[in-house]
Design brief:
Helix 5 runs parallel beside helix 6. Strands 5-4-3-6-7-9-8-10 form an 8-stranded mixed beta sheet, with helices on both faces. The chain has 262 residues and is α/β, with parallel strands linked by helices.
Length: 262
């Protein structure tokens, strides 16, 4: 798996372009790259979220993890240290800031996250706007318990944690709260599951809905899922940032798949 990821990164490094928006003819995508992806975030908020990460990394506590997704290629044991789960599963600060900026731009109608883990990504999403609710779904109770304790601060007041399977909870959220502006898929690395979630999302998505998929180069099957999503007739534009894939359903934009160095 390490060799696969290394080769995938080398390919990305060689072919990624448009770091500063040069060569982009779409005004929408040009603004996305130059204004949204490159935007900064309040240093105090970043510092407060990263303090929670440091606390998790320093923990010696172990919890029982019953992972409904593909699990971790590194952590095979069901009894796992909180510190190890954080190290290998929590989204890095760089991409957390990106999530916040994307949520600020597109998430005003609500945000849904597939895969809470310990809530680092949830907190970054929630930091975009205290008036926007982040609905985050976690299938493992022991993991959700840790996340819930991390949300018990001022930063987590606009986060609603839902326990259960993604495919069970998501339709209920759409029914009760309507179509969100932004959806973030994390926590499952099985091709068939990701495509199942994408099908559910694309069916209910409006043209303003934005989908972010984590770990699109995690494995060959995740890369296959990403390529199938790019070919979907419902998708107008995709942006490959190596770790994250951005999916847009907007009408009136020429279909194109960008690979952007981030």
């Amino acid at each position: 798996m390490f060799i696969y990821r290394l080769l995938a990164f080398l390919k990305y490094f060689l072919f990624a372009r448009h770091r500063k928006g040069h060569g982009i003819h779409s005004p929408f995508v040009f603004r996305l790259i130059t204004k949204v992806l490159r935007n900064k975030m309040d240093d105090v908020i970043v510092c407060n979220i990263e303090k929670i990460r440091k606390k998790l990394l320093a923990s010696s506590e172990k919890i029982f993890v019953n992972d409904p997704g593909a699990g971790s290629v590194i952590l095979k044991n069901n009894m796992r240290k909180i510190s190890e789960i954080t190290r290998y599963s929590a989204i890095p600060k760089k991409y957390g800031i990106l999530l916040c900026n994307m949520a600020k731009e597109f998430g005003s109608k609500g945000i849904i996250e597939f895969g809470t883990s310990f809530g680092i990504s949830s907190l970054y999403l929630a930091a975009s706007d205290e008036n926007t609710t982040v609905h985050t779904i976690e299938g493992c109770d022991s993991v959700a318990d840790v996340a819930e304790s991390n949300f018990a601060t001022e930063m987590g007041k606009n986060i609603m944690l839902h326990r259960g399977k993604f495919e069970d909870v998501f339709p209920l959220l759409i029914r009760d709260y309507g179509t969100p502006g932004l959806i973030f898929i994390d926590g499952d690395h099985k091709r068939e599951h990701v495509l199942q979630y994408f099908s559910m999302i694309s069916t209910s998505a409006s043209q303003d809905t934005v989908l972010i998929i984590d770990d699109i180069n995690y494995s060959p099957e995740m890369a296959e899922a990403w390529n199938e999503i790019k070919r979907s007739e419902n998708v107008s534009v995709t942006v490959d940032l190596f770790r994250l894939g951005l999916v847009f359903f907007r009408k009136g934009i020429a279909k194109y798949n960008y690979t952007v160095r981030y």
